Every structure is written in structure tokens, then in C-alpha cells.
Amino acid sequence: xxxxxxxxxxxxxxxxxxxxxxxxxxxxxxxxxxxxxxxxxxxxxxxxxxxxxxxxxxxxxxxxxxxxxxxxxxxxxxxxxxxxxxxxxxxxxxxxxxxxxxxxxxxxxxxxxxxxxxxxxxxxxxxxxxxxxxxxxxxxxxxxxxxxxxxxxxxxxxxxxxxxxxxxxxxxxxxxxxxxxxxxxxxxxxxxxxxxxxxxxxxxxxxxxxxxxxxxxxxxxxxxxxxxxxxxxxxxxxxxxxxxxxxxxxxxxxxxxxxxxxxxxxxxxxxxxxxxxxxxxxxxxxxxxxxxxxxxxxxxxxxxxxxxxxxxxxxxxxxxxxxxxxxxxxxxxxxxxxxxxxxxxxxxxxxxxxxxxxxxxxxxxxxxxxxxxxxxxxxxxxxxxxxxxxxxxxxxxxxxxxxxxxxxxxxxxxxxxxxxxxxxxxxxxxxxxxxxxxxxxxxxxxxxxxxxxxxxxxxxxxxxxx
Length: 466
Prior knowledge:
Layout: H1 5-8, H2 19-23, H3 27-52, E1 55-61, H4 62-66, E2 79-88, H5 100-112, E3 119-122, E4 131-135, E5 139-143, E6 145-149, E7 154-158, E8 164-166, H6 169-178, H7 182-202, H8 212-224, H9 234-251, E9 256-257, E10 260-264, H10 271-292, H11 297-308, H12 317-327, E11 339-345, E12 352-356, E13 359-364, E14 366-372, E15 382-389, H13 393-397, E16 402-407, E17 410-414, E18 419-429, E19 432-447, H14 458-461
Parallel strand pairs: 2-5, 2-6, 13-19
Antiparallel strand pairs: 1-2, 3-4, 4-5, 6-7, 7-8, 9-10, 11-12, 11-14, 14-17, 15-16, 15-18, 18-19
Helix pairs in contact: 3-5, 7-8, 7-9, 8-9, 9-10, 10-11
Keywords: Antiviral defense, ATP-binding, GTP-binding, Magnesium, Metal-binding, Nucleotide metabolism, Nucleotide-binding, Nucleotidyltransferase, Transferase
GO molecular function: 3',3'-cyclic GMP-AMP synthase activity; ATP binding; GTP binding; metal ion binding
Domain Cyclic GMP-AMP synthase DncV-like nucleotidyltransferase: 58-146
């Protein structure tokens, strides 16, 4: 069993800060999305039935349907939901009264007619294969339009280029669901989420990133090749799946759609982008091998953080170091960074707070300065890396669970969300961790009053005297 398995997933405590807990939507976010797509589906079913004269059905697809949706990895990015709209008529797509562009046009028009305070905008012009509507709460719903022949149970996608495209999301879902029993499917879904999060962190551009479908098929087919006995803890399973995927792609770079052998799922990536993806998978495999070979959980967590950044939680470093030194008689570390922390209110710079290796409670909207005070004692060729790891309801609502915070003996951040967060300081020499410090930052829900409050016009200030 991998030494850091409890940091990946804890089957006994769903609220514990694990990698899995940090990359999935909260219950509130999931319920909000569910309410929004359900209401939108009702509207589109009614509106499009009236516009087209056809029977209209809907079907969720993509990561939301597969149970592999992940949290946006950067603040400002959005959750994605795919809601398929199906225009029903018998026969081939060409037997209907409408062409593909006409169907997409009706969907776009009906989205524009949708009235809700939660809507931010309908993207115009629409995407080639779907329309998109954006909602408050950092998520959007993509709405592809299909022809459905109920009798034959066949689906064809309408495109903006006025062409019909072979596409059957239901068949792919049935393939995935039937590939595993319930217990193994749950494990595979977690593995897909890990790889999707890693890919989103590694490839910031959506266009150069491997698609969700490509990752899903690679992970699922690798998992199918594993015997049931080889499914164990999530870190061990991830290592095995990575090894299987890398071996497969070294032998054959083609990844056929399991329900459409004419489609290469890797075909949408340019050759250089696909090369980069495969090389990055090999780097991730190396990280997994090294992490599983570490003797203590802190060192393993540091390795996994190279792949999953701020999403991978750190253990209680001091407690683990104490246990390691007692049981294995190993040196705790070569350098113990001591960090002075100062917070200065942006609203009133006269208000300052300070601490050593911790700070708080402090209000929101403060500049926070971190400085290693004993940097002169660092061994030669040391490199200091800072990482913000946020926790709590507010950070989760804004999908801001952290980020890399730079290198050097100083760092600067800002207080934004209520709760206890951490600035993690790691010191490396020749790539080996020689020191670390977790710095708790406790933030209250209040902001300081402005030093010079905004002056109201005389006629406003006098109103209270009546």
C-alpha cells in the first residue's frame, strides 16, 4: 500500500482534505448545477417542441453524466455540463424537415430567450458542435443538438457547418458503465478525475489539452486490463494505470473510440501536442514511481505535489517528523525555515499584524508578507518554493483552492476568504527536500473600515435630520 494513500482518498471521512475531496464540486455546487440544468432542460423541451413541431428529449452526457466532473483548476475557470437536445423523427437525419444548422439555430434562439437571474450570457456565435450558456456560480452548460431515431436508437450530431456528424454519447456511456462492476467503476471514476486534474494543470490551453473523452478511454481501458486483485489504494492504482497507458502509447499511439472504430480520439491533437502529452505522462509516471518509493508520507506528498500542485494536501509535517525520528532514527531535516509573517490592511495601512510561522486572525483584504528570517543558514544551492493551499466554503465557492506562490526567501499574498489556509514553504537542495514549513493563515469574515471613509454629499448626509 502506498504511504500517501490516505491523502488521495479517505473512504471513512468524505470531508477530510484529500486530493479527491479538493478536486470535486461541493454538494452545494452540485445541487446548484442540477437545479440549473433541470430548469434549462424543461425550457428547451417546451420551446423547441413548439418551434420545430418535433418531439424533443434531453440527455446529460460528458463528465457530469460519467461522474468524472472536476473542479476548475484556476480561479475564473468554469465547471462544464453537457446537455444533449434530441429532435426526434423516424429515418435518417436527411428525412427530417430541418438541416443541422437550422436545428442549432433554434437551440441558440431558445437559449437566448431563456429568462433567469442566474444567467450571465449566451455565447455568440455558437461553437461548431454546441451552443453554450454561462451561469453565475462559475459553470456553463454546453447544448449540442442531435437527430434521434427512436426506432433504431441512433443519434447524429448537428454542426454549425451545416453537416451531420456521427456521434453517439449514449453508446460511449453504456460501454463505460458495462466495463466494470459498481465497486470498480467507482475507483476508475476517481482515477479519471486525478488524470483530468493533472492534465488541466499541465496544459493550460484547452486546445492543446487531451480531451476528457481521450483520458476517460485511456484510463478505463487500462483499468480493464488490471485484474480485480490489483485494484488497491488509489496511489498504487494510479501508478499501475499510468504504466499501462504509457506502455500502450509507446506501442501504438492510436486510441480508437470504443463505440466508433473510425474515430481516433487522439486525432484532434496536433502531432507536437500529442508528443507533449505522452512525454508529460512519462514524467507523471516517474513522479508516481518516486512517490511510492519514499519512506515517509511528507516526502511522498512533496513528490505528488509536483504533479497536482495545490490540490494535493500536505500532512501534519511536525507530527510526522516527530514520529519518523522516534521510529526510524532519521534526521528530521537539514534546515528548519523560520518565517516571519506580516499582514497590512489595504483599507487602512495603519492596521498591521505579525507572527512567527503563523498569523491570524486577520481580516480580509490584507497584503501578507512572508520572509525566511534564517535564510543565511540555508545550505548552498538551496531553492525555496512557496505554495498556497486554501480551504473552506468561500474558497470552494470561488474555485480558488490555491496556487504556486513563487520562489525565493520572500513571498507576498492577499487575504481573501474566511477560514484557515496555509502557505507552504519547501526548501530543496539539488532537488531533494531539506526543509519545510506549514504556515497557518487564519482569516476572519470582516474587512477593515477604510481609513478615510467615502464622503457623502451634504444633501445625503442631512437626510437623517428630518
